[in-house]
Specification:
This is NUDIX domain-containing protein. This protein is an alpha+beta fold. The protein folds into two domains: about 170 residues, Nucleoside Triphosphate Pyrophosphohydrolase, CATH 3.90.79.10; about 60 residues, Orthogonal Bundle (Arc Repressor Mutant, subunit A). Helices cover about 30% and strands about 25% of the residues.
Length: about 250
């Protein structure tokens, strides 16, 4: 069965299973080599890159749908931090992608998409593309200009990054992106990668320590040519509280 036949067959099933005109597109950010990555899939059909999005079942909540979509499309089956950030509904945003099909195709209907951003450590799971995808890969944000993204997914990624930059001043960032033990320098590089600019080391260290979300460990990072820096971990309870109530000391 070729990719077009696959989609046609899925369209028949989708009309019975999913809500019409509603979809979800999660933007999954990862952090590696001091750079942000985003998780993308390359579809068998048209060989273009897309976000690992999907449709909402008639018997599930929207948040439940996003969790299921991540598992179905990329193999992500463990806990992941998700936050809704926008609605995307331009005319023909999805119809043009499926222009080779007639207008009865489920996927070719006008869809309003709910955008979510997710933060995840790329090393914590193995990507598993679904049957409709050729591959599922982490792509550095710096490489996005070199690839062709389908529909309005470039716009969705840009909006997700802007939202992440806005929220970084009031919400903690890092629990899902850094290893369990990390240095303040590594945490600062994460913030700089998200913000796209350098931060003053002294000011950053003072603010992040005052936030109360870190535990200083009785360990140092070994193996470097310079002084071994202290290691830290996130205080899970205070981190969760800060997600709900904001960073008072920031």
């Amino acid at each position: 069965m070729d990719s077009k036949e696959q989609i046609l067959q899925r369209s028949i099933e989708a009309k019975e299973i999913f809500l019409p005109h509603l979809s979800a597109d999660p933007v999954i950010f990862g952090f590696d080599q001091n750079e942000l990555k985003v998780l993308l899939i390359k579809m068998n059909y048209r060989k273009l890159w897309l976000l690992p999005g999907g449709y909402v079942r008639k018997d599930e909540d929207l948040d439940e749908a996003v969790v299921r979509i991540l598992k179905d499309r990329a193999g992500i089956s463990t806990d992941v931090y998700l936050d809704e950030f926008g609605v995307f509904g331009k005319r023909n945003r999805s119809e043009l992608y499926f222009e080779d099909f007639d207008d009865t195709l489920f996927h070719k209907q006008r869809f309003i998409s709910i955008g979510y951003y997710a933060l995840y450590n790329p090393s914590r799971f193995n990507l598993v593309p679904d049957e409709f995808s050729e591959s599922c890969e982490w792509i550095y944000l710096s490489q996005l200009s070199e690839i062709e993204l389908a529909m309005d997914h470039r716009e969705i990624i840009e909006k997700a990054l802007l939202t992440l930059r806005e929220k970084i001043s009031i919400k903690p960032i890092g629990y899902n992106l850094l290893p369990e033990k990390f240095t303040l320098s590594e945490l600062q590089k994460l913030y700089e990668a998200i913000l796209g600019k350098e931060l003053n080391r002294g000011n950053f260290y003072r603010k992040i320590k005052n936030s109360g979300i870190l535990n200083k460990l009785e360990e140092q990072r070994r193996g470097g040519a310079h002084k071994s820096p202290d290691l830290y971990s996130f205080d899970e309870e205070k981190y969760t509280q800060a997600l709900e109530n904001g960073l008072n000391a920031w």
